[in-house]
Amino acid sequence: MGMQTQVAIIGGGPSGLLMSQILQLNGIDNVILERQTRDYVLGRVRAGIIEQGTIDLLRSADVADRMNRDGLVHEGIDIAFAGERQRVDLHKYSGGKTVMVYGQTEITEDLYEARDKMVGKILHEVSDVELHEVTSQNPYVTFKHENQEKRLDCQFIAGCDGFHGVSRATFPCSILKTYERVYPFAWLGLLSETPPISDELIYVNHKNGFALCSMRSETRSRYYLQVPVGTDVNDWPDERFWEELKVRLPDQTANELITGPSIENAVAPLRSFVAEPLSHGRLFLVGDAGHIVPPTGAKGLNLAASDVYYLSRALLEFFQSGDETALKGYSNRALQRIWKAVRFSWWMTLMLHKFPDDGEFGEKIQQTELEYLFSSEAALSVLAENYVGLPLD
Ligand code: FAS
Ligand code: PHB
After folding, report:
1. Which pLDDT score is estimated for 1?
2. Does CATH place domain 2-72+99-179+271-349 in 3.50.50.60?
3. What CATH topology corresponds to 183-270+356-388?
4. How confident is the model over 235-249, as a mean pLDDT?
5. Closest Cα to atom 5 of ligand 2
6. CA-CA distance, 307 to 322, in Å (whole number)?
7. Which atom of ligand 1 is nearest to 297's Cα?
8. Catalytic site includes residue 132
9. Given the DSSP bridges, would you call strands 84-88 and 99-101 parallel, antiparallel or unpaired?
10. Which of 53, 181, 219, 285 would give a disulfide with 289, using CB separation of 3.0 to 4.6 Å?
11. Does the pLDDT value for residue 14 go beyond 80?
12. Where along the chain do its domains lie?
């Protein structure tokens, strides 16, 4: 059974949904093919911090009403180490910029609502997705849906299918180069309907390991602990999590922790990963399909958004004027910003986590890195301008 569209979008996570919304708003027909159910996609709890560039993109895509109402603008973050807690004034050291706390779960809900309003075409529970003729002018996708073999003819394919998707796997090994660093630890996350411990985020460097105190609203908190790779979330009942978090926090802060039952627990491995190039013929990689960062720098979702920004503008240019220049330049343009975010996320991860094999020299370097950071306005400016997000253009 043959279907036609201008842009086939593989994957209905934040990248795919936002791409679909922007294209349809600009009159470009598209279809999302998503492997999971809608509820499964909506059940994911992931990112929490969005940069101004992401905020602007969501506003331009007309999906920002709830974000404008509920999003929390943050002007700083705290870093705790050696029992002390110090604030990084992001607003001051980034030249007046801020970030917003607004969860990826909420963004995905807003995107689905907008897609429904525009009667966007999303096929859920598709399987056996295969991409064909991607270097021709007429690529197409085959897949199974509702027990039927289907075919979607298109002009372009946006591979928004995440790290384990089929899009990057379609690149011939002869042209694809990947860069990877797998970290020797993971993050154990906990979500609870409890008031956040502080009105801003607290990143913690402790001899037991990294911790992060974040939030989703004034009544919903998000916490993370560095744990060994392969940690079983069932080995961490709430009581154990709260106790270890208190150990890693400075005493005074630990006393302010309000605990409560967890409503979500998950262990996520940490890696840095970049695939080059991000395009092959008329197939383009977007978001986690092309790169992964450790969440320490709060860059994952924001990089997905900047990829969508670059590719959607390039597709608009092609469909409006036939000019393929921006499409041909997408990979290099996106990779310039991606690598800077990969560097920052790697640097924040090295500075804040316990690396068992780095020994005492490694510990001293980390301590010096943190002491230098708070002794130098230049160092604070470097952290701030990267944390709030480097310019898109
Ligand atoms: P996604 O992985 O979100 O979406 C890809 C979609 O494609 C999925 O819905 C998947 O079902 C679908 N798909 C996959 N293969 C397919 C196929 N063959 N056919 C059809 N569909 C297919 N970032 C942060 O900034 N902070 C965090 O705290 C944070 N925590 C994270 C925790 C975890 C466990 C993970 C995995 C990621 C986390 N991230 C975090 C990063 C995360 O937010 C991503 O950057 C973001 O989800 C990227 O969105 P997408 O590119 O849409 O990829
Ligand atoms: C989150 O709230 O999930 C969060 C915030 C900042 C990070 C990572 C995760 O760096």
Report:
1. 62
2. yes
3. D-Amino Acid Oxidase; Chain A, domain 2 (3.30.9)
4. 98
5. 48
6. 21
7. 25
8. no
9. unpaired
10. 285
11. yes
12. 2-72+99-179+271-349, 183-270+356-388
